[in-house]
Amino acid sequence: MDTIASLFSFITTPVSWVIVQFHSVYGAIFGEDTGWAWGLSIVSLVILIRICLIPLFVKQIKATRAMQTLQPEMKKIQERYKNDKQRQSEEMMKLYKETGTNPLSSCLPILAQSPFFFALYHVLNAIATGKTIGVINDDLLASARKAHIFGAPLAAKFTDSADKVSQLGATLMDVRVVTAVMIVLMSASQFYTQRQLMTKNVDTTVKTPFMQQQKMLMYIFPVMFAVFGINFPVGVLVYWLTTNVWTMGQQMYVIHNNPTPGSKAQAAYLDRLTKRVTQHGKVRGRGEKAIVKAIVAKGRDRNEHERKFINGLSKANLAAQPDGTVIKSEGAVATVTEDGTPAGGAPRRQQPKRQSKSRRQSGAQKHSDEPTSLQKSDEPTSLQKSDAPEDAKSAAAKKPAPKSAGQGRSKAQSGQRKGGPQRPKSPSKK
Length: 430
Prior knowledge:
Helices cover 62% and strands 2% of the residues. The protein is mostly helical. The strands form two sheets. A two-stranded antiparallel ribbon has the order 1-2. A hairpin with a 5-residue loop joins strand 3 and strand 4 (326-328). 25% of the residues are buried.
């Protein structure tokens, strides 16, 4: 154990120094030997570490969403090269390089937090065995051994014997009850965080193996915490319970304000955003502008929830701009079709309304009764008999301009002979 502790000495000294600094603050309020002073010191250590890990958490979110997007392509590669594992690995690495993703990015917060976890474990184990470690001297060691959290010593474990627990000034029942409750809370918080992620913040339009893996982890992690938790000191359980609660709250904040595209959380968020924007007529905050900007930039690639958001703005005479702002739109209300293209814009050509058969017949009868421009009331129609020859009638009705002699000879009128007297087409009968 001393060898392992020496390997983590580069981190146990800073961790013990931070705990001592917080203990000096809380000790002045609650008392130096109280469990509140030492317990809140551990909680403050967790909060400080998690604040420092926020940039890594942001990278984790981006990496997780990028991996969800790549799942269909990864599945195609696995099916194409299922008999060639080496080629499959090469294609996977090529895909990661082209898209700029890293599968390990989703594990960065856990990996970065692990050294602090092991350092705190060794600090509390040294307190339980009565050894000084880091900046914790004999006086601080005696104070920490007296600290109890709800009747359980800070360095006691669920698996400790009654003699060892009695040396720390507690009973075995108190230690096991407190540790059991904390293990249950720790496992429940982990399960709820993972379940919240799977049911609300996962793109339900894409069914990938990644979702199945996450669903398995939702049940595996709580079991792991329950199994290994019985070997953790009470102080480590406080640490791990605090970090689980922090993760749960952080996940709730992300789901509420920056959900995954295509998820149920995005549908709820865009509904709230539509109500706020239509009520105030503008987008407030950089986060909302970034989301509106991303939706506008997608164009035809918008999902169902994003198209519904654009349509809601259009119905309120608002238009989303490429920079993420919203302006008043005085034009016609434009909606977005299923493929993401606007259905409004230029006015659509109106088709004539189809009339009934009776109206069409009455309209045709009305037009047939009226005289046309070729049929005058005082002129004979084509069905009326006339004594005048055909060429005389055509000459009287139509007076062409005088033509030259050459044109007259070259172009003869239809139905006429080129020379000599003309004969009417249908001679009249008297």
